Amino acid sequence: MYKRPKHIAIVCNYEVRPDRVGGMDRFFVAYDAFAKANSFQVTWYFSRFEPYSFYSNLTIKNADGENVESFFLKQLAVTADEYDILITHFTSLCNSFYKQARKIQDFEKVIVVDHNPRPLNGFTFKKRLKNRVKGLLYHKYVDQFIGVSNYTSHHIIKDLGLHVAGKTTTIHNGIDTSQVCTSQRNRARTYTQTDKLKLIIVSHLRESKGIQDVIAAISKLEPAELQKVETHIYGSGPMEKELKDQVALNDLSNCIFFKGSSAQIPELLADFDYLLQPTYMECFSLSILESLAANVPVITTTVGGNPEIIIEGENGFLFEAKNTTRLIQILKDLLNNEKGIYTSTSDTIRNGYTLEKMVIDHLKPIN
């Protein structure tokens, strides 16, 4: 008797945009191809989708700005699609959605992938209580929780309760190293007005990404130091005007440049000395992995999964979020050749945090 391929529904609270081909976009496309090669059928649900060639081989249903969980439940109720497996990315960790989905359709397995960072100072008591109640009520409708870092997995259990520990595991993010150009820059050189320390920030421009702290730190450098550094900011977001105003107010337009969103970040990294990521919230950053793979060390905060990959003095430097005094000192030390990362940073990433490994690991729970 003919047996149809198992059908995976993947629900992503994620906007697909042609002006941004990021690490998760590459993961989605690679996962789709690998799943199909292993005899699965895959249908993707995105919160918003603008069609373009990179996603041309995927079967996609577009929520067009509607809550993607609500959109999926409506589609599930009115279509004849039969799904065997439900996987979610960037959605709520544990709520009534999973109960409702399983009432409509009898899934063999439901998997939740948690990419969501936690606030710097933790959740409020009210939010912690809500999470714990939801964990008690709805965890039985989820078969596996996957954290993208050990930090994330720890917080899944902390948020929902010890009863989810046995079905919580970590699958680290990975990147397509073939897309990354390797830097040959000599970071041991002396920085000058003509051969500057080049920093890159790749980030959504919002308050929790801490870019305002970088601008504040750079504004405290001595005039001679300012002439030896330039920072390129790639990204867009609600704080863009405010950040540009901060740069203008501090007369830093000659050393801080806003470059907008780009789909070419893996290629661009090789032209920089360090990636700067001053974030207040993080799980396990794909930008950090791409930067290290490009042989570009990272200056970042001690939040989330960052300390799982950044080793102080070996492949980068760490500072506490919002600690501009420490950031200023790191920048001064680099500019004055008092410290630096002079060895390659790429081998660890190219050997252990690849997109191929990430895809294989994510398919294992349903094979």
Describe the structure.
- The chain is an alpha/beta fold and 367 residues long.
- The chain folds into 2 domains: 6-176 and 354-366, 3-Layer(aba) Sandwich (Rossmann fold), CATH 3.40.50; 177-351, Rossmann fold.
- The protein has helices at residues 23-37, 68-78, 96-104, 125-138, 150-160, 211-219, 223-226, 240-249, 265-268, 286-293, 306-309, 324-335, 347-352, 355-363, and strands at residues 6-16, 40-49, 60-62, 85-89, 109-114, 144-147, 168-170, 197-202, 229-234, 256-260, 274-277, 298-301, 316-319.
- β4, α3 (96-104) and β5 (109-114) form a beta-alpha-beta unit.
CATH class of the largest domain: Alpha Beta
Largest sheet: 7 strands, parallel
Looking across the biggest beta sheet, what order are the strands in?
3-2-1-4-5-6-7
Number of separate strands? 13
Number of helices: 14
Q: What class, by secondary structure content? A: alpha/beta
Task: Using the 3D structure, state the CATH architecture of the largest domain.
Answer: 3-Layer(aba) Sandwich
Radius of gyration of CA atoms, rounded to a whole number? 22 Å
Domain Glycosyltransferase subfamily 4-like N-terminal: 80-178
Organism: Nonlabens marinus S1-08
Pfam families: Glyco_transf_4, Glycos_transf_1
Protein name: Glycosyl transferase, group 1
